[in-house]
Amino acid sequence: MKADEVLTAHHDVLRGLLRDLAETSDGQTDRRRELRDELLRELEVHTQIEDELFYPAVVDVSPLLSLAHAEHRQIDDQLAVVMRLALDDPEFTTEVRMLESTLRHHTFEEEERMFPQSHALGERRLEELGAQLQQRQRELGRSGGMRLIMRLKRATLRTRP
Ligand SMILES: [Fe+2]
Ligand SMILES: [Fe+2]
After folding, report:
1. Hemerythrin-like domain: from which residue to which, for each copy (predicted)?
2. What is the pLDDT of residues 12-37, one digit of tens each?
3. Which end of the chain has fewer CB atoms < 10 Å from its terminal CB, N or C?
């Protein structure tokens, strides 16, 4: 798979999780916890493989990088808001929908603008990069280090005033 195909497939996972999370009701706290933790995990992995591998690879062919980095920070901030809310908070769905809208905008910009720009790297490079992204995605998904970072991050987000 080429790099843009790997990332687009992962965008579908993220968009699906946000849609499912937004559709939960205030009483479904277990389901919310499960989906929210999965979203945190997948978003961490996604942001990291882009920041670490994809964005540096397209730095010469895409003028959108600083905007994309700013949007990653915005997504992170909005995710922090969702993480801090009680699972039955009446504002939960509103905040999830705002995060969903930011993520939809960001992934749309990547898919419609940045990924076409990345085609300037050529098919071979995109295939090679796609393999690297998938390998890193697997490593981060199963690594104990990543789980530890997530636990710490969750703890930090919950105790922040
Ligand atoms: Fe991104
Ligand atoms: Fe992305």
Report:
1. 4-117
2. 999 999 999 999 999 999 999 999 99
3. C
Task: State the DSSP string of 90-141.
Answer: TTHHHHHHHHHHHHHHHHHHIIIIIHHHHGGG-HHHHHHHHHHHHHHHHHHH
pLDDT(75) > 60: yes
Alpha carbon of 132 to ligand 1 centroid (Å): 16
pLDDT at 158: 64
Q: What is the pLDDT of residue 153?
A: 72
What's the CA-to-centroid distance between 25 and ligand 1, angstroms? Answer: 28
d(CA 143, CA 148): 9
Query: Residue type for 20, please?
Result: D
CA of 34 relative to ligand 2 center, distance in Å: 22
From the CA of 107, the nearest ligand is 2
* Per-residue model confidence (pLDDT) at position 114: 98
